[in-house]
Amino acid sequence: MRPIMQTIRIAVSFVLLCAATATAAADPISATIPTAAYQDLRWRMIGPFRGGRTRAVSGVASQPSVF
């Protein structure tokens, strides 16, 4: 590959990376969602129902059915 083409590709990649980072940092939607919006959500088992291994478990000591 010619050195000028490689330099252009690196420069374009850098600009796109900076633009993506700036867009993610300026996302106002994720900062304005109220916590009450999540109150009606409930956990449910979606699978797999048989198979797989559990490597770790975490729970809430004051709520024995929450893990």
Helices and strands in order, then pairings?
Blueprint: H1 3-25, H2 28-32
Q: Could you walk me through the main structural features you see in this protein, from its secondary elements to its overall organization?
A:
The chain is an all-alpha fold. It has two helices and no strands. The longest helix is centred in the N-terminal third of the chain and has 23 residues, at 3-25. The protein is elongated and about 65 Å long. The model has no long low-confidence stretch (mean pLDDT 76).
Low-confidence runs (pLDDT<50, min 5 residues)? none
The average pLDDT is: 76
How much β-strand is present in the residues? under 5%
Structural class call reads: mainly alpha
Summarize the helix and strand pattern as letters.
Answer: HH
Main pleated-sheet profile: none
DSSP summary: helix tally: 2
For the termini, the CA-CA separation is 54 Å
Radius of gyration: 23 Å
Number of strands: 0
Q: What is the assembly state of the chains in this entry?
A: single chain
Please state the overall shape, judged from the principal axes of the Cα atoms: elongated
In which range does the helix fraction lie? Answer: 40-55%
